[in-house]
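USER:
I wish I could look at a protein chain and see how it folds. I am handing you a single protein, as its sequence and its fold in token form. As I understand it, each token names a local backbone shape. I hope you can help me see how the letters and the tokens relate. The protein I mean follows directly.
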Amino acid sequence: MSELEVSTCVCGVRLPVGSGPEHAYVPASPACWEAFGLLQTDEYERFGYSSAHGLIVDSYMASHPGSPDRRNRQSIVLHVVGLCAALEFNFGFQERVRLLRSLAHVDYPAWDWQGPPEDGSTVLDLMFPADEKDLLARANSWAASVWAAWSPHAQQARELVLSLKP
């Protein structure tokens, strides 16, 4: 019996090598991208547009830097700022959406990724929550871990939030 071939995504998740679709500018492995899609499907089917959704998307996208594409650099900054706004400034979903829209038309330099969260948290930690409250707790935990992984850029993120805070 042969051993299953696995790959490690830039976010740190280890999954069997997949051959599914890939995102145009997010350097996620096909298996990681599929796991994210399955998580979103489960979330929507069970809870609708849950209160955890923004944190989940920000955490996933901020965990996948590395492409030189302008869209990836912009995505990283926006989603890291989204995490900052939610976790440090208690922005609600609509307030974060307004903030991110106002930042979306700037070409940002690449922010150096120090590596995946030290606690090893990934998209897999959010799979199959017991209920919406469990999903939100897991999303908050993952968001805090991803935010900590971006700590070298925390002050830049805070400044962007404060520059546009009403």
Q: What stands out?
A: Helices lie at 30-47, 53-62, 70-89, 93-103, 132-149, 154-164. The mean pLDDT is 91. The beta strands are 6-8, 14-16. The chain has one domain: 6-164.
